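Morning - 16G inputs below, output right after.
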Amino acid sequence: MQDYLLNEYQRQVAARRAPAYQHLRRTLQHAIENGSLTAGQALPGERELARLLALSRVTVRKAIAGLVADGLVIQRQGAGTFVAERIVKSFSALTSFTDDLRARGLDPRSEFLERGSGEVTPEEAMALNLSPGAQVIRYYRLRTANGTALALERTVVPAEVLADPGLVENSLYAAFDKLGVRPVRALQRLRAIAFDAEQARLMRLPEGSPGLFIERRTFLDDGRVAEFTRSFYRGDAYDFVAELHTE
Ligand code: 16G
């Protein structure tokens, strides 16, 4: 691996003029793309890379930060940096973004792009079974795990379920849990999309990158709808699986 990285790095340096961190970023990207580094494999440590390629650790760190933002590698505190594996997500389990990522030992976060409340729109009223004039809470969040943007989510919740937009810190379902609100069932549909220019900018992806659009309506045990969420997941990061049974 070390020989391969050294050769590829020297090839990158000879091929074009660019800052050293970009040469290293391309070197590691090539190694991942051609399978020299495989999913789940640990990258050589920061100090080792710096010594091998005669670079400063700041340069190495900058290159790795770029790969994290691209979703190619994942950093685990105290354990190192690993080539990202696709996230396997059940299409039939009522789990949250936070649940899915925590189960993999990652650190899921919400970056609020919008957060507020207002009167329900006709479309929202249909999705949430609300009457005109009802109040709703709205969130638009960038969802990240260990620094990598994985999804954009627009969520609408009836104010009778969640009284105040400030109740959600990172996780909507954690806020439900705290309030004793129990989602028991959801209807969900999925289709392929390409990220438009604005979404791509927020996700730090090239425009037109593949995505999965998932719309979810979640119900409480008393039949009320608790959320209407439109999620845009990275298509290159997720595998959706479902168990099927004959009737
Ligand atoms: C998931 C759900 C989304 C839900 C969110 C809550 C899918 C396709 N969508 O992203 O409907 O609002 O989790 O996550 O699974 P949170 O509790 O981390 O905010």
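Note: The beta strands are 73-76, 80-83, 87-90, 108-119, 135-145, 148-158, 183-194, 210-220, 225-234, 238-241.

O.
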